[in-house]
Amino acid sequence: MASVVVTLDGSVRAPDAPLLYADDLGAVRGDGCFETVLVRDGAPLKGRAHLDRLARSAAALGLPAPNDGAWWAAMQRAAMLYGEEAGGAEGALRLVYTRGRESDPGTPTAYVTVSPLPERARRARTEGVSAITLNRGYSTGLGTDAPWLLLGAKTLSYAVNMAAARYAQEQGADDVIFTSSEGRVLEAPRATVVIARGRTLVTPPAEQGILPGTTARALFDAAEDKGVATAVEPLFPVDLVMNDGVWLVSSITLCARVHTLDGRPLPDAPMDGTVRSLIDAGIENTP
Ligand SMILES: *Cc1c(COP(=O)(O)O)cnc(C)c1O
């Protein structure tokens, strides 16, 4: 159960009270977009970056442009209420924006929830994860050639992402790294892939049908600030085996080192500590 629920008109809802109508298109078609935002000490981290991406996702879906001021206020309010309740502990905040009711076209549904940090995220941060590579069956050009596939939007149609994560679990792995039909490394179902090659951090280009991650962006900004080299270039399956570290980075888990890939242990990651402190600096400094 969420600890805090705030709707876009600023009202605080009882977290265990029903909120959606049965014909909400978010529920019946997954038609909408969302963001997950880390809350620390009662404040959202990189809130601006998340609201900007929510606006881009909404535009891709043809939803009305989100009311930025109302979202900002609801997000701050929800984070603050959670911070008071949880004594400053970290929480997972969601921005949910759906097309609204089938019977009331043109009125989106919009709300914010905050829940305690999932145990899975805590464990992935401290212990790392095992992952398997899975073919997503898309070519890298599809993101730009087929905008209706919404590859660059964070949509509520997440059933495939969750099915891939369950498939990994059935194979005894914690997570998935998707590859394209021509065998390029794409992303994880809920995170961006970053590798180290020597002392250089590398991530594949978002133009290859990858969601532009706000955490990877914050990491790369902090790296550039501190003189750590970065590169955005296509990655191949061999890069997941021959490297100096592989991480899955995302807003809630922040950083999960991949210690095992397709059942084989990966090389040591001498930059693990550096990547973690760069992410921490990056998310604190990103508006
Ligand atoms: C949310 C998400 C990410 C990570 O984005 P962050 O902004 O870093 O949280 C990466 N890939 C996909 C598919 C996602 O849904």
From TrEMBL:
Residue ranges that the Swiss-Prot or TrEMBL entry lists as coiled coil: none
Pfam families per UniProt: Aminotran_4 (PF01063)
InterPro entries the record matches: Aminotrans_IV, Aminotransferase-like, BCAT-like_C, BCAT-like_N, Class-IV_PLP-Dep_Aminotrnsfr
Keyword annotations of the record: Aminotransferase, Lyase, Transferase
MF annotations from Gene Ontology: 4-amino-4-deoxychorismate lyase activity; D-alanine-2-oxoglutarate aminotransferase activity
Gene3D superfamilies per record: 3.30.470.10, D-amino Acid Aminotransferase, subunit A, domain 2
EC numbers for this chain: 4.1.3.38, 2.6.1.21
One GO CC term on file: cytosol
GO biological process: carboxylic acid biosynthetic process
Protein family: Belongs to the class-IV pyridoxal-phosphate-dependent aminotransferase family.
Name of this chain's protein: Aminodeoxychorismate lyase
Organism for this UniProt entry: Tsukamurella paurometabola (Corynebacterium paurometabolum)
Top-level taxonomy: Bacteria, Bacillati, Actinomycetota, Actinomycetes, Mycobacteriales
